[in-house]
Design a protein that fits this description.
mainly alpha, three-stranded antiparallel beta sheet, two-stranded antiparallel ribbon, 16 helices, 57% helix, binds protoporphyrin IX containing FE, binds 2-acetamido-2-deoxy-beta-D-glucopyranose, Cyt_P450_sf, iron, signal, Cyt_P450
C-alpha cells in the first residue's frame, strides 16, 4: 500500500522539478553562457577554490556582463557584473531571498542577518541598523586604536626582513577588534592565537570554503558522512558555548547595573551585544538563540572582510611608493610629527586621501568578490565600521613604518575563499619610518 503511494509521490516530484526547470530555462534563453556537460552543466569545472575566481572571470570575459550557467541538474545561475543591473537588484526591497548556499552557514549563524530572509530579515535589519550610527561607532575607535597598537608592535619582529606575509598578523588583529566591539570581551588573539575559540573560528571558515566547492559535501544528505561534518560539529560546540557564555555574563552585568550596583564603572563603551540584549520587538525581547545568531553573524562577517581589505591595501601601498608618500603627507598634516598619538573620530574623518586609497584597493581586490541572491538589499551595513577600522589600522602602520615591496617582488595568487585572499600570502617588507 505504502510503496505505490511513495512511488507516485516521487514521480510527481520529478515531473514538477522538470517543469520548473523548463519554465526557468525559457527565461534564460537569450542570455549567453557556457553550456558545460549535459545535465550537470558546469558543476565539474570548479575543482578547487582557486578555479572559481579564474573560471568566473573567464566567463565574464567571454560572454559579457550578464552570463547564465547551469550548475547541477536543477540550478541555473545568472552571473551579473553589470553595474546598472546590480543597482537595480541591490536597491530592490523584494529581491531579498538568499540562495541555498547560505544554508551552509546556518550551523554556526542560524538565521542571523546574513542568512535570514523575508520578514525576519526585515525586522532584524530595522532594529540593528541604528547600532551602526556614528555616535555608537565613535566609541569603537578606542578598540581599533588599542588593537592597532598591538599590531604595530607585532610588526616590529619583521623589520628588515626581505619579505613577510602580513595576512596572519592582520587577521588576528581584526579578530581582536570584532570580538571586543561586538561582545565587549577581549580574546587577545594577537597574543594568544592558539585559543580554542580563535582556532574554531579559523576551522569553521575553512570548512565553509571546502564545502562550497565539493559536490559531495554540498549535498545535505551526504554531508554527515564526511570528515568535515564532524569537524564542524566539534567547532560549533566550542563557538556556541563561547558566545552563549559571553551573553549570559553580559546579561548578569547589565542586570546588576540596572539595580544600581555598577560594579564596573570604567566600562563606558557599549558593545553591540548590549543593544541586542536591550532591544524589543513589539515589546518582546530577543531570545537567547536570536541574540547568539546575530553575535555570531557579526563575528563572521566583521573580521575576515576587513582583514582582507587592510592586507591588500598595505600590499598596494608597498608597491606604489608615490601614492604611499602622498598618504604619509596626509598623515603628517593631521598628526604633525606625533607618531604614537591616538587617532580621534575627527582625525579619521579627515583622512580623505587614505579613504580613496582603501576604496580603490577594494575595487581592485574586493573582499567579498561575489555573493548570491535567489532572484537583495543594500550592503551598506558594516561599511562605516569597516572604513573607520581600516583607516585607524592603516594610519597607525603608515606613521610607524615605510612599506616596501617584498624582495623578490611578490606576485599575488588571488583566490576566493568566500573572502578574497592570496593563496601564496600577501607579502611586503617594512622599515621603521624616521
Ligand atoms: C571591507 C569590509 C567589508 C566588506 C567588503 C563587506 C561586504 C559585504 C557584502 C558584499 C555583503 C552581502 C553579502 C551577502 O548578502 O551575501 C555583506 C553583508 C553583511 N555584512 Fe559586510 N562587509 C565588510 C565588513 C563588515 C563588517 C566590519 C561588519 C560588522 C561589523 C559587517 C557585517 C555585515 C552583515 C551583518 C551583513 C549581512 C547584512 C544583511 O544581509 O542585512 N560587514 N557585507
Ligand atoms: C600583547 O602583546 C603586546 C606586544 O607584543 C603587548 O604590548 C601587550 O601588552 C600584550 N597584551 C596583552 C593583553 O597581553
Ligand atoms: C590562551 O588562551 C587559553 C584559553 O583559551 C588559556 O588557557 C591560556 O592560558 C592563554 N594563554 C596566554 C598566554 O594567555
Ligand atoms: C571554462 C574555464 O575557464 N575553465 C577553467 C577553470 O579552471 C581550470 C583550472 O584553472 C582550468 O583548467 C579550466 O580550463
Amino acid at each position: 500500500m505504502i510503496l505505490p503511494i511513495l512511488l507516485c509521490l516521487i514521480f510527481s516530484f520529478l515531473i514538477w522539478s522538470l517543469y520548473q526547470t523548463c519554465k526557468k530555462n525559457s527565461f534564460y534563453k537569450n542570455i549567453p553562457g557556457p553550456s558545460g556537460v549535459p545535465i550537470f552543466g558546469i558543476a565539474f569545472e570548479f575543482k578547487s577554490t582557486q578555479d572559481v575566481l579564474i573560471n568566473l572571470t573567464s566567463y565574464i570575459k567571454t560572454y559579457g556582463d550578464i552570463v547564465t550557467a547551469k550548475i547541477g541538474p536543477f540550478r541555473r545561475y545568472l552571473l551579473v557584473s553589470d553595474y546598472n543591473f546590480l543597482e537595480c537588484v541591490l536597491s530592490s526591497t523584494k529581491l531579498i531571498k538568499k540562495s541555498h548556499h547560505y544554508t551552509f552557514f546556518q550551523g554556526w549563524l542560524g538565521t542571523g542577518l546574513l542568512t535570514a530572509d523575508g520578514a525576519k530579515w526585515k525586522t532584524h535589519r530595522r532594529i540593528l541598523t541604528p547600532a551602526f550610527h556614528f555616535q555608537i561607532l565613535e566609541q569603537f575607535i578606542e578598540v581599533f586604536e588599542k588593537c592597532g597598537d598591538v599590531l604595530v608592535k607585532k610588526f616590529e619582529n619583521e623589520v628588515g626582513r626581505k619579505s613577510f606575509d602580513i595576512y596572519p598578523y592582520v587577521t588576528l588583529h581584526t579578530l581582536d577588534v570584532i570580538c571586543e566591539s561586538i561582545m565587549g570581551i577581549s580574546v587577545n588573539a594577537q597574543n594568544n592565537s592558539t585559543s580554542e575559540y580563535v582556532n574554531s573560528v579559523k576551522n569553521i571558515c575553512k570548512i565553509f570554503v571546502e564545502r562550497s566547492v565539493s559536490p559531495l559535501q554540498m549535498c545535505r544528505f551526504m554531508y554527515p558522512f564526511t570528515k568535515n561534518y564532524w569537524a564542524e560539529q566539534k567547532a560549533l560546540k566550542i563557538l556556541h558555548q563561547h558566545t552563549n557564555s559571553v551573553i549570559d555574563a553580559r546579561r548578569k552585568e547589565l542586570h546588576k547595573a540596572e539595580n544600581g550596583h555598577n560594579t564596573n564603572p570604567k566600562k563606558s563603551k557599549k558593545p553591540f551585544l548590549d543593544l541586542l540584549l536591550e532591544t524589543k520587538i513589539d515589546g518582546i525581547p530577543l531570545t537567547q538563540e536570536e541574540i547568539r545568531e546575530e553575535v555570531d553573524t557579526f563575528m563572521f562577517e566583521g573580521h575576515d572582510t576587513t582583514a582582507s581589505a587592510i592586507s591588500f591595501t598595505l600590499y598596494s601601498l608597498a608597491n606604489n611608493l608615490h601614492v604611499q608618500e602622498k598618504a604619509v603627507d596626509e598623515q603628517k598634516k593631521i598628526f604633525g610629527e606625533r607618531k604614537d598619538v591616538t587617532a580621534a573620530y575627527a582625525d579619521l574623518q579627515n583622512m580623505k586621501y587614505l579613504e580613496n586609497i582603501i576604496k580603490e584597493s577594494l575595487r581592485l581586490y574586493p573582499s567579498v568578490p561575489f555573493y548570491n541572491r535567489e532572484i537583495t538589499d543594500d550592503i551598506m551595513f558594516g561599511q562605516k565600521f569597516a572604513m573607520l577600522e581600516m583607516k585607524s589600522t592603516i594610519s597607525k602602520i603608515l606613521r610607524k613604518y615605510k612599506l616596501l615591496p617584498a624582495d623578490p617582488q611578490h606576485e599575488l595568487n588571488l583566490v576566493s575563499e568566500l573572502i578574497l585572499k592570496s593563496s601564496n600570502g600577501i607579502k611586503i617588507s617594512i622599515e621603521p619610518r624616521c
